[in-house]
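queue> pop job 88
queue> type: inverse folding (structure -> sequence)
queue> payload:
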């Protein structure tokens, strides 16, 4: 077995929904740029030092598991875990905005998702294993990020036009957009992975 290849274990990655997933994933990132500076206001700077140490240790621990988790099923499970954590953070913020606990939970949630960052990048590269697919995925990421930043700027300007100028109010309203975007992300992620039997069924319908 090629040690550079991700093990499929009877699973398949479907490129079209996966590219859509990466587009909306980066759209979410572009939309949310700047929101953390408002959400994190209640936190003491020392929290970031401890968070950085915890992040480095978590990434080190995850790297030791590559031999076990460098498979398509685990790639899907960890990707889904990350998105469910993000969904939980958005829902919590909408329910209880601008408290110390909310800021702490959002920070901890993002640190948890970042801890899987290196693994997800490496697993994605091995899973796609095709220059054209990698080009399309990376292009989708950049397009999504640019669209997200443009959309957030326009959204903030529309809120200001309606007389909503407080940063806290604007960031809160933006989270309703983030909620919708995250639900689309999870839907596309689930559609992006499946067992080989599903691949055969999809191929049969398309032929």
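queue> result:
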């Amino acid at each position: 077995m090629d040690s550079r290849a991700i093990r499929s274990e009877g699973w398949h990655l479907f490129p079209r929904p996966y590219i859509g997933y990466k587009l909306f994933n980066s759209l979410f990132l572009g939309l949310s740029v700047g929101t953390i500076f408002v959400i994190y206001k209640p936190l003491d700077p020392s929290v970031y030092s401890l968070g950085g140490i915890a992040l480095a240790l978590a990434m080190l621990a995850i790297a030791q598991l590559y031999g076990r988790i460098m498979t398509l099923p685990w790639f899907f499970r960890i990707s889904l875990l990350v998105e469910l954590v993000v969904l939980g953070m958005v829902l919590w913020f909408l329910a209880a905005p601008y408290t110390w606990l909310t800021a702490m939970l959002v920070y901890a949630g993002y640190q948890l998702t970042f801890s899987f960052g290196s693994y997800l990048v490496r697993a994605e590269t091995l899973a796609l294993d095709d220059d054209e697919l990698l080009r399309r995925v990376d292009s989708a990421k950049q397009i999504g990020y640019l669209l997200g930043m443009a959309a957030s700027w326009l959204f903030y300007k529309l809120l200001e036009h309606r007389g909503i100028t407080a940063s806290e109010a604007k960031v809160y309203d933006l989270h309703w957009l983030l909620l919708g975007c995250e639900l689309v992300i999870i839907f596309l992620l689930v559609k992006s992975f499946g067992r080989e039997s599903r691949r055969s069924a999809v191929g049969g319908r398309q032929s």
